[in-house]
Amino acid sequence: MQLTNRAKQVDRRPLNFAEKIYLPAVLKGMGITFSHIFKKKATIKFPEETRPFSPVFRGLHILNRDEEGRENCTACGLCAVACPAEAITMDAAERLPGEEHLYREEKYAAKYEINMLRCIFCGLCEEACPKDAIYLTETFAPANYSRQSFIYGKENMVIPHPKENPEAFTKAKGLIDERKAKASQQQ
Ligand code: SF4
Ligand code: SF4
Q1: pLDDT digits over 21-78, tens only?
Q2: What pLDDT score does 168 carry?
Q3: Fewer CB under 10 Å: which end of the chain, C or N?
Q4: Would 52 be classed as within a structural domain?
Q5: What is the 3-state secondary structure (H, E, C) of 104-150?
Q6: pLDDT per residue over 103-159, tens digit each?
Q7: Which residues of 63-99 are buried (b: 16+ CB within 10 A; e: fewer)?
Q8: Among all ligands shown, which has an atom nearest to the Cα of 59?
């Protein structure tokens, strides 16, 4: 009894002359190959060429600073509460006298980590943040061999300091402005 209708009888007739010399089959194959030369390519030359991201693409996170270089995050924990993947962990600390140039408010995140293997890039952390501190960008985590390397800390996410690296700071701010513009278009 046949379980599906996909069974086929094997053709056991002896090969004729044309089939024995394989030439018609080779020419047929080459015809198919050459016909593809004039068709639009489905592939691109990555990494030299890249495809544009979708306008709603969400990638790796960055943590924002203000124009004076102070970290915006106050370790309030709202992003961690909003995160459906429980990917965010942080340790809050109190700003000490003399640290006003480092942190914008009295509390700051001494440790802030996102597990990119857990993250589903939903953007809820960005939406939950009341301090303009966290944004998702159009980049993705590079491949790696260890799980540990996918746990991103502040050293991976806080944007460059405006005085130490003004060019990189301006570029990062540009990414944030782009993100804000796209978010407002989607509303
Ligand atoms: S993008 Fe979504 S899953 Fe990823 S850390 Fe933010 S809230 Fe969590
Ligand atoms: S990123 Fe925003 S929501 Fe998350 S702890 Fe910092 S200030 Fe709070």
Answers
A1: 999 999 999 999 999 998 998 899 988 998 888 888 899 999 999 999 999 999 999 9
A2: 94
A3: N
A4: no
A5: CCCEEEEEEEEECCCCCCCCHHHHHCCCCCEEECCCCCCCCCCCHHH
A6: 999 999 999 999 999 999 999 999 999 999 999 998 888 899 999 999 999 999 999
A7: bbbeeebbbbbbbbebbbebbeeebbebeeeebeeee
A8: 1
Residue 141's pLDDT is what? Answer: 85
**β-strand pairing of 151-152 with 88-94:** unpaired
> What is the residue whose two structure tokens read 């804000």?
180
Please give the residue that has the higher pLDDT: either 5 or 98.
98
Residue 79 in 3-state DSSP? helix
* Total-model pTM: 0.78
Q: Known binder of ligand: residue 2?
A: no
Closest ligand 2 atom, CA of 63? 1
Domain count, the chain: 1
- Give the number of other CB atoms < 10 A from CB of residue 100: 13
Pocket test for ligand 1, best of 60, 86, 118, 124 (most atoms within 8 A of CB): 124
Q: What's the 145 CA to ligand 2 centre distance in angstroms?
A: 29
Distance of alpha carbon 66 from alpha carbon 105, whole angstroms: 11
Find the domain containing 150 and state its range. 61-186
Query: What is the rounded CA–CA span in Å between residue 106 and residue 104?
Result: 7
- Does any domain span residue 88? yes
